[in-house]
């Protein structure tokens, strides 16, 4: 193994270097935490032996900074009598093991042999994940096209590491699905996956949502509140639409990524968090940097590994399996059989450009399944723009009152037809029919009464 020994006692450091070199390891020494951090980040090591109490930077601070910078070597802390609490705290924060001082040579060798065996097993798992590639993907992911397979291969390679990942691509291409796949393949899979859309929360509330607040921090803060960083500790935090993050919060996010620390609103103390951040954006962040809307240092911190998802129109090979997958998922949710798709309807789906990408495809299929007869989707069941239907010819304007009545009659007729089709498809089950229509059961009952559907004559 390639080892780094960080200890401010020259005699102990040199003794360890001799013992470990004689055991076949490649050993480098550092005289304090600051020098050790520089060596750890500029080289590649399998394990790092680090003293807890050192000048300039202690072992806990070294561990925090090393992990925040993306370091993934196993860290083994060494603690003298009386500093066991610090060693235990280091293990809570991600250290692999600790060795109490004074120690015997065979104790150190045993801990390193255990670490070496763990790394061997982890290497086998990573190799297996890499070999499986897209074939080992979640059932929620469809990847027939080369572009999607390339994206999944890259996800498989970076998943075992703590590296920050930036997902780019048009809206609706499935960036959150890929972020969840990254989490599922990572060593953090058993810990929380927490997602937030940075553009969906008011800027005044976003800081508290991300970092939390303490009691009395602002009007209405009647108690302390843990933010999303704390709730995702040990797992993955997915920051969707990161380009919408307000400028003042970009500085605080950068600190959290660099230092591994956050500070609740109104709190004077920082808190250490162990979070892997995955960000996503549909906008060009490099252009946003040029015009001053996004910090350049934050962009480079997020863009350690970039995975791009192309538009659905550029990977049409994915459309047929996506159709089957989405229809099966829709059927499972509603407890009914998935409809079949007629060849001419599939041709229309393949020919359409899908500006809304997978999200638009899903909505179109849900609409078609509501309108389909006898469990068979025809091209006529697809939205007009998908099947290439011409726009209605313009008609002469009617008087306002007549036009309003005509428009209302057309709307009511369309609603009644959709409700009758949903009831037929669900076998009269009103709860399933409401799900097909995307409305509440209460709303459906109101509409049934309005149109006299299923009501006794009177």
Named CATH architecture of the largest domain: 3-Layer(aba) Sandwich
User: How widely separated are the two ends?
Assistant: 87 Å
User: Using DSSP, what is the number of strands?
Assistant: 16
Rough shape?
elongated
Q: Superfamily at the CATH H level of the largest domain?
A: P-loop containing nucleotide triphosphate hydrolases
* Largest sheet data: 5 strands, parallel
**Biggest β-sheet: strands ordered side by side in the sheet:** 2-1-3-4-5
Mean of residue pLDDT?
A: 83
The total count of helices amounts to 19
Strand content: 5-15%
Quickly give the structural class: alpha/beta
Q: Gyration radius, to the nearest Å?
A: 29 Å
Structural write-up:
There is one protein chain. This protein has 458 residues and is of the alpha/beta class. The protein folds into four domains: 2-127, Rossmann fold (3-Layer(aba) Sandwich); 138-310, P-loop containing nucleotide triphosphate hydrolases (Rossmann fold), CATH 3.40.50.300; 313-387, Orthogonal Bundle (Helicase, Ruva Protein, domain 3), CATH 1.10.8.60; 400-451, Arc Repressor Mutant, subunit A. Helices cover 48% and strands 13% of the residues. It is built from 19 helices and 16 strands. It has helices at residues 10-22, 33-42, 59-68, 84-92, 105-132, 146-158, 175-185, 203-211, 228-231, 247-259, 285-290, 296-302, 319-334, 343-351, 357-371, 384-387, 400-425, 430-437, 441-451, and strands at 2-6, 26-30, 47-51, 74-79, 97-100, 165-168, 193-197, 212-213, 225-226, 236-240, 261-262, 271-272, 276-281, 305-308, 340-341, 376-377. A five-stranded parallel sheet has the order 2-1-3-4-5, with helices on both faces. α13 crosses α15 (357-371) and α18 (430-437) packs across α19. The longest helix has 28 residues, at 105-132. It is elongated and about 90 Å long. The termini are far apart. The model is unreliable at 129-135 (pLDDT under 50).
